[in-house]
Amino acid sequence: MTTSVIFFGIMAALGYIVLQSLFILGVRIAAKGAVEKLPNGKDKDSEMILFPLFKYLTRTERIKIYYSGEQFDQLADKLSVLMPEYQLRIHENSILLPLDDASRVPVLKELNHVLPKIDGKIQVAVTDNGVRFFKIDEVFKVNKYLRKPVIQCPICMASYWSVFSYWIPVIYFYGFSFWVVYAGVVNICAVACMNWLLWMRGSAYESQIMKG
């Protein structure tokens, strides 16, 4: 095998990696967008052709996670330090504030003032007997091992889309062998790196344009 054959073989392989990366990033760009909430309450989706698929696979469910146990104790200690003028009564992961308690309204107002100093994501659930604290956790409905390689993560997409860009055509023309599998793994890693490089450069350029 001559040097020129090796050289052109390597260049062809690199070119094919770049073509695969451009194809995958094209798919990801075609799914890029956001949902705009209209004044009438309806959602207006991005007009990118693959955005409906992206939206479906990245659906989330908002779940309230209440402070309890050691985490609640730590939060209560911080509140006691920031609100020394009030005697906070603790009971079963909540602060007791009955309706007939004269300090109920002042404490609630002070909580709205001091909680952002601890964590801006902490929210308050008020009941007739007191308050509990929680955070909203957004949980994806579709497993990450499906949504990320298919459409969400440009780097992870190298694994799924290589089925069409490498595995099917290469196995069809050259058959199944150890070297085909070995080259396929190398191909996925190379395409993933190329995706990361091009996506990061593109995102940085887009941010620069948005800033003017």
Automatic annotation (TrEMBL):
Q: Which residues cross the membrane?
A: 6-27, 150-173, 179-200
Alphabetical keyword list: Membrane, Transmembrane, Transmembrane helix
Superkingdom is: Bacteria
What this protein is called in its record is Uncharacterized protein
Q: What is the lineage of its organism?
A: Bacteria, Pseudomonadati, Bacteroidota, Chitinophagia, Chitinophagales
